[in-house]
Amino acid sequence: MSWRHVGSRALVALGTLAFVLVFNFFLFRAVGDPKKDLIRSRLTPAAKEALLKERGLDRDKLTQFRIYLSQTLRGDLGTSFTSRKPVLDEVLGALPNTLMLVGVATLLSAFIGGWMGVIAASRRGSAWDTALTQGSLVFWSMPFFFIAIIFIWIFAVKLGAFPTGLKSTPGGPTSGFAYYRDVFEHALLPVTTLTISLLAQYTVVMRATVSDVMNEDYITTGRAIGLPARLVMRRHAVPNALLPFVTLFALNIGFVLSGAFVIESVFSWPGIGDLGIEAIGNKDYPVLQGTFLVASAAVIVANFATDLVYGLLDPRVRTA
Amino acid sequence: MSASAPDLPADVLLDVRDLAVAYRNGRGEEVRIVDGVSFQVRRGEAFGLAGESGCGKTTTALALLGLLPTSLYRPTGEILLNAADGLVSIHKRTERGMQQVRWAKVSMVFQGAMNALDPVMRVSNQIGEAIRLHEPGIDRRGVEERIAELFGYVGIAAARSRQYPHEFSGGMRQRVMIALALACKPELVIGDEPTTALDVMMQAQILQLLEDLRRDLGLSLILITHDLSVLAETCDRVAIMYAGEIAEIGTVRDLYAKPEHPYTQRLLAAFPAVGGPRQLAPAIGGVPPDPADQPTGCRFAPRCHRVQDICAAQAPALRALDDERAARCHFAPWPTGSTT
Amino acid sequence: MADREHDVSTTATTPLFEVRDLQVHFPIRRSGGQVARALDGVDLEWRRGEVLGIVGESGCGKSTLGRALLGLQATTSGEILVDGEPLEDADLRAVRRRVQMVFQDPYQSLNPRQTVGAQVLEPLAIHGIGARGADRIARGVAVLEAAGLRPAARFWDRYPHELSGGQRQRVVIAAAMALQPEALICDEPVSALDVSVRAQVLHVLMTLKRERGLSLIFITHDLGLAWALCDRIAVMYLGRMVETGTAEQVIGDPRHPYTKALLSVVPSPFPRDRVRREILAGELPDASRIPTGCRFHPRCPAAFDRCRSDDPRTLAAVAGADGHRAACWLVDG
Amino acid sequence: MAAEPAISAAGGTARALAATRRTLSLIWSSRRGRIGLSILVVFTLAALLSPVLAPEDPTRDFGSEILAPPSSDHLLGTDGNGADVLSGVLIGARVSMAVGFAAAIISGVIGAFVGVVSGYYGGWIDRTLTAIDDWFLVIPFLPFAIVVATALGRVADDWPGGRVTLLIIVIGMLSWAGTSRLVRSQVLSLKERQFVERAKALGASPGWIVRKHILPNVMPLVFANTVLIVSATILAESTLAFVGLGDPLRPSWGTMLEKANDSGAVATGAWWFFLPPGIGIVLVVLGFTLVGYAIEEIVNPRLRERRG
Q1: Is A151 in the D-facing interface, judged by CB distances under 8 Å?
Q2: Tell me, what's the ipTM?
Q3: Has residue B25 been placed in a domain?
Q4: Which chain B residue's Cα is nearest to A310?
Q5: Is the pLDDT of residue A52 over 60?
Q6: Is the CB of residue A201 less than 8 Å away from at least one CB of chain D?
Q7: Widest CA span of chain A, in angstroms?
Q8: Which of A217, A224, A315 minimises the CB distance to B115?
Q9: Which of A227, A280, B63, C33 is 20 to 30 A from D94, alpha carbon to alpha carbon?
């Protein structure tokens, strides 16, 4: 892959990030009114005054933008109205939990979903195909939070098998094997929920892509040289289908994060989604902006990484 | 070789007998897109299969490799390959059985080759894959040597085998495809419109290459094309297909000198020859019939300029006119000098 | 049976189109200012009432030339004269009304969501010809039937996908003829059609030509077709004409080594006593890397020193053959 | 011959009606289309007739016992406020479907406009629009929607339709990027097609080409895509309502589920409270998805022209 390709993709990522920064400012300064937000918050009058000064809210818009930019770039995202802690600390504290949830669920769902799509496509019209496709459609039609509710109802309430909230048992073990076991038990339901919510799309997309690829001439060549169907699938159909799959995977990252937000909220999983949704009710604007910034940055970075992976997979990009 | 297998003369490599290929339409009726096709290909011979799009020539070729799409089936027909190591009854082979025949004995060059090579795989890996598949014991060194040899045949520097298909031009890609077709030393190579997407000069290069390879390697060749003039220069014998049937078959020399089927007559005249008369030949009216709705009687009758009453009523058989020649027309042979 | 008129004596005074040193360059992406010279100094004369064949391999620029004549392709430099007037000064709409185009692929050149009727009425509506309704319909019906789609009512409400390739190409011809043009530029009009249908479409074109006195350009890679249909032939190689003359001159007595090679490899159903096949090695060079000197010299079997350094810029006249010219140092000029 | 009845100048409406009828019958001819269309008809009727059908006003009548299981009084039991769940589901259908529809239409209009302009005119217009489009495609929907809806929340309380209008706008504005990308690529390929070139050769102006050749070939795809987008917008609405951004005065299915979750209906196993609105969402989304696929199969040339 040429450095030119890497460079151009990096430029796109940086541009998007810059746009997010500007947008974030304008949304809350131009449309919203941060002074009023501040006044309604639960901070003490003295703290409000100090904050007003610190954020430069008493200055003109251009100066405000300059201050906002320099503060944001230095990692100063303001102070939470609710907890009165720096937003950056709050968000960075929650981020690993979100990344763990999203990372595990995304990888699991992409692998399992993609694999199910390949199964469906290689047996088009069979009972397997029908079951997988119809099942996917139904799961696709479910909101994330509804799947979460159903899971809690069945596994936690009816069967009482798993804990339904938080990352670990309050007052439980804080280190060692017992701690990890506790976290694992708490994580199981949210991760499963997110994985299952995402599976369907990957199955549907993979099935469609593989079916498309199966119409290509080089598949006929594969069969013609005497490869058994399963090898044609593994060596020619799947590698080619991976290209559009990776593209969709990249476009999907934002959607996955959205799902994670809701699921964190339902399971009280202490990630940035839970933090953000909690902030809606508290009208905690600095936290909202902070989660939005960090979430966007995470998605942009993930997209950039996927772009690079795509370049590695496709020789037409790599050698161009 | 089983006792029941029919004996084939030693010089016949491929014998196709009464081949039909059909699908079921919406009402469950059998619709034949290839019907009663019989021909033989001799060792070392170039055999041409010509006709317009939809006449069944490509379907026939796919049937020879057992590569028909799942919607199609073969109601009748025997396909016998008189391979060097014994007779193969292709029509009796299962999918798994065919996997041993494909490429090792019969290989194919596809149209244009633009998409016939896997875009994300190095060319050397694609050719190597075919070689390893049919010679499991071969080592890396052996594969590399074979690839170098194959690239030598088709006139490309062996070093380029490490490249991807998109790095080759159209004509070069067709050469790579030919190298792939020769990878497992087949006895029969089928070229399905191998030069259709190419320009005249490139077409001449590729046809010359195929001719040289056939001579040097002792291959047999089936060339499928809609372009009768291409066959005239490369083939020994040709079959002209119309509406799923063979309309006429014979040696190139005889058939082109005196076509007996009115379709062949008009088709040959449709190619204005450089240096020939400066005028347009009369056109063949109408369009080929829908396979689901073939005319009773002669399938060409509705478009035929020499049609008689009997043609609409009775389907003509493919009648032998001499050892090499047969035509599916009630009136063949036509008196000399009446062929247009 | 013969559709063409052999009488070529109708030599017109001003040519319908005249092309002088025409250049069309395309920028190449990611190449730092490099250009592909699709047309690189084309000179051409298209006379009134004649069938002019433009022959060459794909990538030689023949389609670009056809499009440039109608202003469908921006030109880099050089002149196109219509009736002696520069094309850039002319009213393009008026030119396009007088000169129409028939495209290569009838599967691509009809709007899939328009009925046959709508397609033949469209040019009339664009130019506001005739009264809306019955009048235009009558004209549309007339051109459809002239293009051999009879009765027109049977085709009027059909969509392109319900028609065969030959029928589609006739719809294209009918729509072009609806404007009663004086000239047609046909870009490979039959190469996408099946052999048996080709003759049908060609007959329609030649009948129209005869009956309405059309001037025709035939862009084709098929030398046999050019021989059978064209009065004059221009052979193109890498963006430039290499040989022009009457069909008899160019095909019967080719002077440029490229023309000779092309003719030698044209497959024919009637293998004649031909000269040895002259298969040129290699491929058509990239239009962004046109060889210095004579552009044909790297593949030319007759190339000598001068060809490597000097570009035979102008077509040299062949002695004793009126109008026969070739861009080759071997032609005595 | 010219006077044959088959040839008439009659155009527009009759042909459009015939096309609609043909499309509907084509949708109906596939099993998926039939199921989807049936679901949609049932739910649309229920939503339209809900003021008549609903036994109570779920925003006012809180008289009964809290979280009562289904009985003859309350066919689907009562919610955390003691209101009738069946009435809630029927009224909620109106809000959910209205938001879904309206947002999808906004998204379709913006997407088609941006796609056509960017694809047809190219150049710097295209580069600018594509950059904006890319941004909307990449940005995580929910955090973005939450931020926008919160920032505008107070402003929207004074609008007609209140926060429902806000939801419609936010969702509509955030979901056009995919459509415009699809339309753009379609326009780009149409622009290169020979029939557009031919129209130019006939003397057609750019405006004529867009009206007569580009739009008619793009609109069916936009239509199919918009139907598919409805399922996405309904899901988006339910999610935003679930996280507390719905309009308390105009409860949707998402709002109901939020209440169910907050009132501990899940923990107490009061399935009649959370299953009905959830199943409502799933069925309607499924319906739009199935119909959307059926239409896509009809209008997408790539899918249609594939040989069987």
Answers
A1: no
A2: 0.83
A3: yes
A4: B120
A5: yes
A6: no
A7: 81
A8: A217
A9: A280
With contacts defined as CB-CB under 8 Å, which chain C residues touch D301? 112
Give residues 49 to 88 of A whose Cβ lies within 8 Å of D: none
- Select from A157, A262, A295 the Cβ nearest to the Cβ of D242: A262
Cβ <8 Å between C196 and B267: yes
Mean pLDDT across C161-173: 92
Q: Which residues of C touch D1 (CB under 8 A)?
A: 141, 145, 151-153
Q: What's chain A's average pLDDT?
A: 86
Query: Distances from the Cα of C319 to the Cαs of B111, C232, C324, in angstroms?
Result: 45, 18, 8
Burial zone of B153 (CB within 10 Å; 0-12 exposed, 13-18 middle, 19+ buried)? middle
Overall average pLDDT of the C235-256 stretch: 94
Q: Domain holding D110: CATH number? A: 1.10.3720.10
Residue D177 lies in a domain: yes
Region of poorest pLDDT, from A48-52, A186-190, D278-282: A48-52
Q: Please report the pLDDT score of residue C273 as a whole number.
A: 46
Give the model's pLDDT for residue C4: 43
Q: Can you tell me the mean pLDDT for D257-283?
A: 88
Q: What Rg, from alpha-carbon coordinates, does chain B have? A: 21
B285 and B164 both lie in a single domain = no
Output the CA–CA distances (angstroms, integers) from residue C285 to B246, C21, C282, C292, in the order listed: 42, 21, 8, 12
Residue corresponding to tokens 């989304």: D285
Residues spanned by the domain of B309: 245-327
Q: What is the DSSP string of B284-312?
A: PPS-PPPGGGPPSS-TTGGG-TT--HHHH
* A315 close to B (CB below 8 A): yes
Tell me which residue has tokens 């031909």: C274
List the 69-88 stretch of D: residues with Cβ below 8 A of A.
Answer: none
Q: Does D192 lie at the interface with C, CB-CB under 8 angstroms?
A: no
Residue D159 lies in a domain: yes
Q: Which residues of D touch A288 (CB under 8 A)?
A: 146-147, 150
Read off the CATH number of the domain in which B217 is found: 3.40.50.300
- Which of residues 151 through 190 in chain D touch A, CB cutoff 8 A? 151-152, 155
Distance of residue C223 Cα from the nearest chain B Cα, in angstroms: 7
- Identify the band that residue C32 occupies on the pLDDT scale cut at 50, 70 and 90: low
Query: pLDDT band at C9, cuts 50/70/90?
Result: very low
**Best to test chain B binding among C194, C201, C263 (most B CBs inside 10 Å):** C194
The confidence band for C271, taking pLDDT boundaries of 50, 70 and 90, is low
Task: Tell me how close the Cα of A1 comes to any Cα of chain D, in angstroms.
Answer: 23
Query: Which of C181, C219, C286, C284 minimizes the C-alpha distance to C64?
Result: C219
Q: Are B339 and B268 in contact, with CB atoms under 8 Å apart?
A: no
Q: Are residues B254 and B224 in the same domain?
A: no
CATH fold, domain C16-326, is Rossmann fold (3.40.50)
Under DSSP, the state recorded for C188 is S
Do the domain assignments include residue B76? yes
Q: Which residues of C touch B200 (CB under 8 A)?
A: 57, 221, 223, 262, 265-266
The answer to whether C265 contacts B203, with C-beta atoms less than 8 Å apart, is: yes
CB–CB contact C72 D7 (8 Å) = no
Q: Mean pLDDT score of chain C, rounded to an integer?
A: 88
State residue B12's pLDDT score: 93
pLDDT at C278 over 90: no
At A275, give phi and psi (nearest 5°). -60, -45
Range of the domain at D122: 95-281
Instruction: Quote the DSSP letter at residue B90.
Output: G
B37 and B179 fall within a common domain? yes
Q: What is the pTM of this model?
A: 0.86
Torsion of CA B301, B302, B305, B310, to 10 degrees: 40
Residue B112 and residue B171 share a domain: yes
| C33 pLDDT higher than 80 | no
Residue A205, chain D, CB below 8 Å: the answer is no
Indicate whether B182 and B311 sit together in one domain. Answer: no
Out of A33-37, D80-84, D232-236, least confident range: A33-37
Residue at which a domain ends, from B235, B270, B299: B235
